[in-house]
Amino acid sequence: MDGDVAAAHGGTSGADGAADAVQDPGGTAGHRARLRQRLLRGGPDALLDHELIEYLLALAIPRRDTKPLAKRLIAEFGGIGGLLAADPEAIGRTGLGESAISALKLVQAAALRMLSAEVRARPVINSWAALLDYLHADLAHIPVERVRVLFLNAKNMLIRDEVMSTGSTNEAAIYTREVIRRALDLSASGLILVHNHPSGDPAPSKQDIAVTRDIVEAGRRLDITVHDHLIIGSNGHSSLRSMGLI
């Protein structure tokens, strides 16, 4: 059994003995069976957010009552999205061990893989909703700014999705020369700039607008189209193209 067993927030994790000290009270097995049947019969919408996490954690910590744990984790990380997107080290500080953390990250990875496949299956420009779903799932809840560039071919199919830089809570560097050089390396015909605002507010800053215009102009000289700059926040997204800023 894994060490995903801290009895309380800030407690020690790891030992099987700790798990034994907080073994499920009577009736937990029946409760989990009911959750399982609701999930199988009604799909994921049949369970509340904390119930999804509760059942997932129960698979990794079978001898623990995971209902209060699931509620605490969701509250601490600001929702199920924040929990799944959280850094493993941050989750570990709550007392969870590797098996439970791995279960959470596996769900996130599967979701992102599915959303990414939707984006790659057709021209990106024609699947904007799928792109936004993917980017929001990947970027909306991380605690630092991250700059991504989606490089496209002449048919607007995705060639490469690359992280160009990771910064602090309120800034991340993006360099025109690096973006354009990478586009040339990949023989890209176009690109989409993307970054997140950990504050949740996706409104562009003056610096966001200025650097985007620099990249647009540099791309124009080399026949590389900058289709948009998308800013992702937990409260939504901004498109500099739609806002008339580029």
From TrEMBL:
Keywords: Hydrolase, Metal-binding, Metalloprotease, Protease, Zinc
A GO BP annotation: proteolysis
Key word DNA repair present: no
All copies of domain MPN, residue ranges: 124-246
GO molecular function list: metal ion binding; metallopeptidase activity
Composition bias type Low complexity, residue spans: 1-21
Residues making up the signal peptide according to the UniProt record: none
InterPro entries in UniProt: MPN, RadC_JAB, UPF0758, UPF0758_CS
Annotated spans, Disordered: 1-29
Cross-referenced CDD domains: MPN_DUF2466
Family statement drawn from the similarity comment of this UniProt entry: Belongs to the UPF0758 family.
Stated name of the protein: DNA repair protein RadC
